[in-house]
């Protein structure tokens, strides 16, 4: 059987043929989706979160909602209803002001048509509505209340998982709301599978302590060298190629990222002229590996340099809303990333270390206060999303007070790029003061 190289190696939205099961991850996931808890899958980007679901669940077993920075809880719940084929109409109640000054929109409330005491499935409801529309009654539900949403889904006999992709894109207030809603859904045995790009445990529990013992977390990292060996060996068999000459170096150059391993393997094969299963075994040489590394360094470089430039936010670096000169934390963070010891960046940088190191290189070190740095760090994800940096490349763990890189390709880029040259091209705020 012939296999296409693009189906065997690489990063794509469908399940790649060199997917391997790992006991610490796959077995835990299979157990998690049956134990009654909500399921949280987390880890850096391109480390196998989506593939984990694709490997164990068919499309008919789940409803998936893709999140964006504009997504609100009601948007998620409406999407679920639409995908389940549940017919509803918006409530006709008018918008009015709340006692706190906000507005209560009618969009939170919907009406669901039910016919007598029969089954609530859409098929039965539609058939009976055609015969006796005058007997249709409407029941009102408030989509702002997880209790109402749970009752509605139970009424329609939900037997699927609900997958929430890109949870990290949501505003923090929305994440917090959903953390409380998940507690209600768990009580009603409605299982959500939440996927997010972060690297610390208990992210949602920080929002709602009641989730403790009600969620099962499945981290997709770390990947071991032995795991990578298995991935490459599986691809060797499928494409009739031999990576033995370069396998160890390839793994070392990938900095624990399965996404990078996959991409380098794919380009090694393509450079060697293997676009599909070779008729005779093809050996992947050092030249093939060097070529693949150069290709990925170029591709990753274009994206990450663009992200760095957007992150620095040069159009508003000189002042803030109070009129005081800006401390330009985005610039100094990128500068630190491009000058600090690579080994320390890999381990993560604590808030205390960040404060100390930024003061060393800042043009106004006496003005760099811990509180200001904390505000910058707490808004790190929102800052990246507002600059259209997707996925985010760095994340701050508020619980552990540590900053970590969460784009698994960034280590590869930082190790292979000319950091000094890139830094020279980043606009310096001192030049405009």
Summarize this structure as a short list of keywords or feature phrases.
433 residues, single chain, five-stranded parallel β-sheet, alpha/beta, 19 helices
Task: Give the helix/strand layout.
Elements: H1 5-8, H2 23-32, E1 38-42, H3 49-56, E2 62-66, H4 73-83, E3 89-90, E4 96-97, E5 103-104, E6 109-115, H5 122-131, E7 136-142, H6 146-155, E8 161-165, H7 172-187, E9 192-196, H8 203-207, E10 215-219, H9 225-239, E11 241-242, H10 247-253, H11 258-271, E12 282-283, H12 286-312, H13 329-339, H14 342-347, E13 349-350, H15 351-361, H16 370-378, H17 380-386, E14 394-397, E15 402-405, H18 410-416, H19 419-425
Parallel strand pairs: 1-9, 1-10, 2-8, 8-9, 11-12
Antiparallel strand pairs: 3-6, 4-5, 6-7, 13-15, 14-15
Helix pairs in contact: 9-10, 11-12, 12-18, 13-15, 13-19
In short:
The chain is 45% helix and 14% strand. With 433 residues, it is α/β, with parallel strands linked by helices.
Question: Explain this structure to me?
Answer:
This protein is α/β, with parallel strands linked by helices. The chain contains 19 helices and 15 strands. The strands form 5 sheets. It has a 5-stranded parallel sheet with strand order 2-8-9-1-10, sandwiched between helices. It has a 3-stranded antiparallel sheet with strand order 3-6-7. A hairpin with a 4-residue loop joins β14 (394-397) and β15 (402-405). α13 (329-339) packs across α15 (351-361). It is globular, with a radius of gyration of 25 Å. The chain starts with a helix and ends in an 8-residue tail after the last helix.
